[in-house]
Amino acid sequence: MRSVGLLLASIVALVATPSLLDAQRRQPARKPPARKTEPARVTCPEVLGTGVRTKASFCFVLVGRDPADGVLVAIPPHTGNATLTFDLHNRHTYSEEEVKAGRGFAKYAAVIGVLTMQGDLLGRGAVLSEFRHARDLYDRIAGGAGPGGVKAVAPLGRELVTITVPPKIDQVSLLGEMLQATTPAGPETAAPGRPVAIVSGVQVEYQPGPVRR
Protein backbone atom coordinates (compact mmCIF):
# COMPACT_ATOMS: atom_id res chain seq x y z
CA MET A 1 0.00 0.00 0.00
CA ARG A 2 2.83 2.36 0.77
CA SER A 3 4.28 1.87 -2.68
CA VAL A 4 0.88 2.67 -4.20
CA GLY A 5 0.71 5.88 -2.14
CA LEU A 6 4.16 6.96 -3.28
CA LEU A 7 3.21 6.26 -6.89
CA LEU A 8 0.06 8.40 -6.60
CA ALA A 9 2.07 11.25 -5.01
CA SER A 10 4.55 11.13 -7.89
CA ILE A 11 1.74 11.27 -10.47
CA VAL A 12 0.15 14.29 -8.72
CA ALA A 13 3.52 16.09 -8.66
CA LEU A 14 4.06 15.44 -12.37
CA VAL A 15 0.59 16.74 -13.21
CA ALA A 16 0.98 19.86 -11.06
CA THR A 17 4.45 20.86 -12.31
CA PRO A 18 3.37 22.00 -15.82
CA SER A 19 0.63 24.12 -14.25
CA LEU A 20 3.16 25.85 -12.04
CA LEU A 21 5.42 26.46 -15.03
CA ASP A 22 2.51 27.86 -17.04
CA ALA A 23 1.64 30.23 -14.18
CA GLN A 24 5.21 31.49 -14.14
CA ARG A 25 5.18 32.02 -17.90
CA ARG A 26 1.92 33.99 -17.66
CA GLN A 27 3.45 36.58 -15.34
CA PRO A 28 3.64 39.95 -17.15
CA ALA A 29 7.06 41.10 -18.31
CA ARG A 30 8.62 44.00 -16.44
CA LYS A 31 7.98 47.27 -18.34
CA PRO A 32 10.95 49.46 -19.25
CA PRO A 33 11.12 52.88 -17.54
CA ALA A 34 8.85 55.49 -19.10
CA ARG A 35 10.44 58.27 -21.15
CA LYS A 36 11.03 61.52 -19.28
CA THR A 37 10.99 65.12 -20.49
CA GLU A 38 12.72 67.70 -18.34
CA PRO A 39 14.62 71.00 -18.55
CA ALA A 40 18.22 70.36 -19.49
CA ARG A 41 21.19 71.40 -17.39
CA VAL A 42 22.85 74.14 -19.45
CA THR A 43 26.25 75.77 -19.06
CA CYS A 44 26.06 79.14 -20.81
CA PRO A 45 29.33 80.93 -21.75
CA GLU A 46 27.52 84.28 -22.11
CA VAL A 47 24.12 84.86 -20.48
CA LEU A 48 21.69 87.40 -21.95
CA GLY A 49 19.22 87.29 -19.05
CA THR A 50 15.63 86.46 -18.10
CA GLY A 51 12.63 87.32 -20.24
CA VAL A 52 10.11 89.82 -18.89
CA ARG A 53 7.14 88.05 -20.51
CA THR A 54 8.19 84.40 -20.73
CA LYS A 55 10.44 84.26 -17.61
CA ALA A 56 12.71 82.04 -19.71
CA SER A 57 16.50 82.12 -19.49
CA PHE A 58 18.20 83.32 -22.68
CA CYS A 59 21.76 82.40 -23.64
CA PHE A 60 23.99 83.62 -26.47
CA VAL A 61 25.36 81.08 -28.96
CA LEU A 62 28.88 82.11 -29.96
CA VAL A 63 30.74 81.42 -33.17
CA GLY A 64 33.57 78.93 -32.74
CA ARG A 65 35.13 75.60 -33.62
CA ASP A 66 35.98 74.11 -30.22
CA PRO A 67 32.95 72.38 -28.62
CA ALA A 68 34.26 73.37 -25.19
CA ASP A 69 33.53 77.03 -26.06
CA GLY A 70 29.86 76.47 -26.91
CA VAL A 71 26.63 76.31 -24.95
CA LEU A 72 27.07 72.99 -23.12
CA VAL A 73 23.99 70.83 -22.56
CA ALA A 74 24.15 67.81 -20.24
CA ILE A 75 22.31 64.68 -21.49
CA PRO A 76 21.22 62.31 -18.68
CA PRO A 77 22.17 58.60 -18.91
CA HIS A 78 19.71 57.14 -21.42
CA THR A 79 18.73 53.96 -23.23
CA GLY A 80 18.31 54.37 -26.97
CA ASN A 81 18.21 57.82 -28.55
CA ALA A 82 17.46 60.95 -26.54
CA THR A 83 15.77 64.03 -28.06
CA LEU A 84 17.09 67.53 -27.46
CA THR A 85 14.78 70.49 -28.17
CA PHE A 86 15.31 74.24 -27.80
CA ASP A 87 14.02 77.57 -29.11
CA LEU A 88 16.38 79.44 -31.41
CA HIS A 89 16.15 83.23 -31.79
CA ASN A 90 17.92 85.94 -33.69
CA ARG A 91 19.76 88.65 -31.76
CA HIS A 92 18.49 92.21 -32.23
CA THR A 93 19.57 95.51 -30.67
CA TYR A 94 16.45 97.63 -30.26
CA SER A 95 16.52 101.41 -30.72
CA GLU A 96 13.36 103.44 -30.14
CA GLU A 97 14.92 106.45 -31.92
CA GLU A 98 15.64 104.49 -35.10
CA VAL A 99 12.11 103.05 -35.16
CA LYS A 100 10.56 106.53 -34.79
CA ALA A 101 12.84 107.80 -37.54
CA GLY A 102 11.74 105.02 -39.90
CA ARG A 103 15.15 103.35 -39.89
CA GLY A 104 14.32 100.38 -37.67
CA PHE A 105 14.16 97.62 -40.30
CA ALA A 106 16.51 94.67 -39.78
CA LYS A 107 16.72 91.15 -41.19
CA TYR A 108 18.64 88.20 -39.78
CA ALA A 109 19.51 84.64 -40.81
CA ALA A 110 21.52 82.55 -38.35
CA VAL A 111 22.69 78.92 -38.36
CA ILE A 112 24.11 76.97 -35.41
CA GLY A 113 25.48 73.44 -35.07
CA VAL A 114 24.92 70.85 -32.34
CA LEU A 115 28.08 68.80 -31.80
CA THR A 116 29.41 66.08 -29.55
CA MET A 117 32.35 67.01 -27.37
CA GLN A 118 34.55 65.15 -29.89
CA GLY A 119 33.38 67.52 -32.64
CA ASP A 120 30.94 65.22 -34.47
CA LEU A 121 27.98 67.13 -35.92
CA LEU A 122 24.59 65.82 -34.72
CA GLY A 123 22.45 68.41 -36.49
CA ARG A 124 21.85 72.08 -37.23
CA GLY A 125 19.30 74.74 -36.36
CA ALA A 126 18.43 77.87 -38.34
CA VAL A 127 16.26 80.92 -37.68
CA LEU A 128 15.20 83.69 -40.06
CA SER A 129 13.32 86.78 -38.88
CA GLU A 130 12.70 90.46 -39.61
CA PHE A 131 12.25 93.46 -37.36
CA ARG A 132 10.10 96.52 -38.05
CA HIS A 133 8.34 97.37 -34.79
CA ALA A 134 8.80 96.64 -31.07
CA ARG A 135 5.95 94.13 -31.24
CA ASP A 136 8.13 91.96 -33.52
CA LEU A 137 10.44 91.16 -30.59
CA TYR A 138 9.90 87.75 -29.03
CA ASP A 139 10.60 89.06 -25.52
CA ARG A 140 12.43 91.80 -23.63
CA ILE A 141 15.20 91.07 -21.14
CA ALA A 142 15.09 92.36 -17.59
CA GLY A 143 17.99 94.12 -15.92
CA GLY A 144 18.79 96.87 -18.43
CA ALA A 145 19.06 100.65 -18.25
CA GLY A 146 16.39 101.31 -20.87
CA PRO A 147 12.78 102.40 -20.28
CA GLY A 148 11.01 99.83 -18.13
CA GLY A 149 14.34 98.45 -16.93
CA VAL A 150 14.92 96.26 -20.00
CA LYS A 151 18.04 95.64 -22.06
CA ALA A 152 18.45 96.93 -25.60
CA VAL A 153 19.48 93.48 -26.89
CA ALA A 154 16.47 91.20 -27.27
CA PRO A 155 15.51 87.86 -28.86
CA LEU A 156 13.76 88.16 -32.21
CA GLY A 157 11.76 85.37 -33.86
CA ARG A 158 11.46 81.79 -32.63
CA GLU A 159 12.28 78.48 -34.29
CA LEU A 160 11.87 75.15 -32.49
CA VAL A 161 14.90 72.92 -33.11
CA THR A 162 14.84 69.15 -32.50
CA ILE A 163 18.04 67.09 -32.41
CA THR A 164 18.44 63.31 -31.96
CA VAL A 165 21.19 62.38 -29.48
CA PRO A 166 22.60 58.81 -29.78
CA PRO A 167 23.20 56.52 -26.79
CA LYS A 168 26.35 57.03 -24.67
CA ILE A 169 26.44 60.78 -25.47
CA ASP A 170 26.30 62.61 -22.14
CA GLN A 171 26.98 66.18 -23.30
CA VAL A 172 26.57 68.25 -26.47
CA SER A 173 27.71 71.71 -27.52
CA LEU A 174 25.83 74.46 -29.39
CA LEU A 175 28.13 76.54 -31.59
CA GLY A 176 27.38 79.35 -34.04
CA GLU A 177 28.20 78.75 -37.69
CA MET A 178 26.78 81.58 -39.80
CA LEU A 179 25.10 84.98 -39.56
CA GLN A 180 23.79 87.14 -42.38
CA ALA A 181 22.20 90.35 -41.14
CA THR A 182 20.99 93.63 -42.59
CA THR A 183 20.68 96.30 -39.90
CA PRO A 184 20.42 100.13 -39.81
CA ALA A 185 24.19 100.13 -39.24
CA GLY A 186 24.77 98.07 -42.39
CA PRO A 187 25.57 94.40 -43.14
CA GLU A 188 26.63 92.27 -40.19
CA THR A 189 28.37 88.91 -39.92
CA ALA A 190 29.61 86.91 -36.95
CA ALA A 191 33.27 86.78 -36.04
CA PRO A 192 34.78 84.02 -33.87
CA GLY A 193 33.77 84.43 -30.26
CA ARG A 194 30.86 86.74 -31.08
CA PRO A 195 27.12 85.95 -30.66
CA VAL A 196 25.35 84.57 -33.71
CA ALA A 197 21.98 83.68 -32.13
CA ILE A 198 20.15 83.15 -28.82
CA VAL A 199 18.70 79.95 -27.31
CA SER A 200 16.05 79.36 -24.64
CA GLY A 201 13.75 76.60 -23.41
CA VAL A 202 16.34 73.81 -23.65
CA GLN A 203 14.76 70.43 -22.84
CA VAL A 204 15.73 66.77 -23.16
CA GLU A 205 13.45 63.75 -23.62
CA TYR A 206 14.94 60.33 -22.84
CA GLN A 207 14.39 56.86 -21.46
CA PRO A 208 16.45 56.58 -18.27
CA GLY A 209 19.37 54.22 -18.46
CA PRO A 210 21.95 52.89 -16.00
CA VAL A 211 23.93 55.52 -14.15
CA ARG A 212 27.62 55.48 -15.05
CA ARG A 213 30.02 54.99 -12.15
Strands, helices and their partners?
Blueprint: H1 2-25, E1 36-39, E2 41-43, E3 47-50, E4 57-62, E5 71-74, E6 78-93, H2 96-100, E7 106-116, E8 121-131, E9 153-165, E10 171-183, E11 186-188, E12 195-208
Antiparallel strand pairs: 1-12, 2-5, 3-4, 4-12, 5-10, 6-9, 6-12, 7-8, 7-10, 10-11
Instruction: Give me the secondary-structure category.
Output: mainly beta
What's the helix-strand series? HEEEEEEHEEEEEE
Can you tell me the CATH architecture?
A: Sandwich
- The span between the termini is 64 Å
Q: How would you describe the shape?
A: elongated
- Domain count: 1
| Helical stretch tally | 2
CATH topology, what is it called? Answer: Jelly Rolls
Largest sheet: 6 strands, antiparallel
Please give the CATH class.
Mainly Beta
Radius of gyration: 28 Å
Write down how many β-strands occur, each being a DSSP E stretch of 2 or more residues.
12
Which segments are poorly predicted (pLDDT under 50) over 5 or more consecutive residues? none
Oligomeric composition of the shown chains: single chain
Strand percent estimate: over 45%
What share of the residues lie within helices?
A: 10-25%
**If you average the pLDDT, what whole number results?**
88
